Amino acid sequence: MLTRAKQILAAVEGAGFDDARVTITETNVNELNVAHNHVSLMRTTESQSLAVMAIQDKRRVSASVSRLDELTVEQVIADMQRDVANSPQDEAYAVAAGQTGQFERGPQTPEREAIAAAAKSLLQVRSEQFPTFQIEECAIKHSHSTSTLVSTQGAALVAAQGHYRVGLMGSSKDEHGSSSFTFIGGELNALPARLAEVMDIELLMANSARETRTEMIGEKFTGDVVLMPMAVMDLVGWLTRQLGDAALLSHASVYQNAVGECIATPALSIRNNPQGAGQPPFNGEGFVIQPVTLLDQGKLTCQLPSYIGSRKLGIPYTPFAGGWCIDGGDVSRADMLAGVEHGALVGRLSMGSPAPNGDFSGVIKNSFLLESGKQTKALSETMITGNVAQMLQDIQAISREVTDFGGSQLPWLKISGLRFS
User: Around 44, how many Cα atoms within 13 Å sit in the side-chain half-sphere?
Assistant: First the structure.
C-alpha cells in the first residue's frame, strides 16, 4: 500500500495543495461473540479506509472514505478543493516531516482455536464459580491492521500490527435483586488458557455477585477511597485531558503552566507503554511514538497537545499513544484495604464534568464500604465529593499488584480526604 499511498499523495499535491498527509489502513478482524452466557457469533470482517489531510494557503481540509479506487479518490480531491476555501487560515497548520520506519508488532495471524478456548474457559468459570453473574455481551477478537502514512514533507511510515482484544459487560441477578452493569476490556498479545485470570475479570465477576444487595452509607463522612484499576484509569484520563488541546487551547487547564512542578505525590510516576499490546508505533499525525514519562516522582514533565496544538501554543510536541502505566508500589492490595478505617473500595469513578479547578461531585459505582479494614456492604446511591487535582496529591499508597490492560498497566490507589454522602 505504500505505492498506492504515494500515488494518492502525488494526486493531492498535483491538485494545488501546498502540503498533505495520506493514510491508508487495511484491517482484518476475527471475532467471537458471547451474548447472555452463550456463544452467539463467529465472524471475520475486512475493511479499508483512506484518510487525507491537506493544506492550501494556510487553510486545512480533511476527508475520509472506505474505498481506494480512482473515481473515489478523484471525488475526494475535488471535494477538498471545493471545501478548503471555507476553512479559516492558521499559521499552525502543518504535516509531519521526515518521520520514517517500518514496524511489525504483535501476533500477525489469528489463532481461532485459542479464541474459542478462551471463550469456553470464561463461560466455565462463570458457570461453576459465579452462576449469578450474567455475561450480557463479550467479544474476543484478533485484529490485524496494516497502516501506511505518507506526507509531502517526507514522512513514510508502515506498520503491520496484530493483537487480541477482550471486552466484557455484564451484571448479576439472584433472589435479592440485580447489580449494576460492570465492564472491562483490554488488549493482549496472546490469549491465556484461563481468560478470567487476566484484566481482573474473575474479581469483576466476584464483586458483581456481591452487588445484588446494596445499601446506602447512612451518615456523611470524610474518608479514604481505594481505587481499583478501572477507576484509576478514570483518574489518569482526567489528567491527560487537562494536558490536551481542549483544555490548553481554551486556557482552562489546571496545569496550563505547570511543567516542572510537582502536581502529585512523589510516589507517583506515570509513563506511556509504546510496546504494549495494541499500541500503535506511530500516531495519526505521522509521528513515531517515543517513550514518555509524564509524571516523574510527582513532577509534570510535559503537556500533551496535538502537533497543531503545540504549534499554536508554542510549546514542545510529545508524540504519544493512549496507554499509560503506573508502576507498582510497596503494599499489597489486601494490606491497603486493611489500612482503611472508614471509606470505600471503588470499581468505577463517575466524576461527570469536574469544574475547571478540578472540583467534582460524582457517583461511585461497583463499590463497597470499607470499615475498620474490612470490605463490607455493597453501596448504592453513594456520592463522593472532592477535587481531582488534590486527589493526585493525596495518594497515600500504591499497590504492588498491577493489572495489565495491554496499553495501560495500572495498580490500586489509596487516596485520602474524600467526602462521602
Answer: 7
Residue 132 CA to residue 208 CA, distance in Å, equals: 9
Considering the chain, what is the average pLDDT of its residues?
94
* Domains of the chain (ranges, CATH numbers): 2-210 (3.30.2290.10), 215-420 (no CATH)
Helix (H) or strand (E) holding 218: none
Alpha helices in 84-196 (DSSP H): 112-129
- From the CB of residue 212, how many other CB atoms can be counted at a distance below 10 Å? 19
The three-state secondary structure class of 237 is: helix
CB neighbours of 161 closer than 8 A, spacing ≥ 6? 103, 104, 105, 106, 144, 145, 146, 147, 278, 280, 281
pLDDT at 113 over 90: yes
The predicted structure's pLDDT at residue 256: 96
Contacts for 329 with CB less than 8 Å, ≥ 6 apart? 267, 397, 398, 399, 400, 411
Angle of helix 112-129 relative to helix 201-210, nearest 10 degrees, comes to 30
* 35: its cell numbers: 451474548
CA dist 319 and 309 (Å) reads 12
pLDDT tens per residue, range 141-160: 999 999 999 999 999 999 99
pLDDT band of residue 381 (cuts 50, 70, 90) is confident
pLDDT at 176: 86
pLDDT confidence bin for 382, thresholds 50/70/90: confident
What's phi and psi for 121, nearest 5 deg?
Answer: -65, -35
The DSSP string of 32-101 is EEEETTEEEEEEEEEEEEEEEEEEETTEEEEEEES--SHHHHHHHHHHHHHHGGGSPB-TT----BS-EE
The four Cα atoms 149, 155, 156, 157 give a dihedral, to 10 degrees, of: -60
Q: How many CA atoms lie within 13 A of 33 on its CB side?
A: 10
Count CB neighbours of 267 within 10 A: 16
Q: What is the pLDDT of residue 397?
A: 96
Q: Which three cell numbers stand for residue 23?
A: 493514510
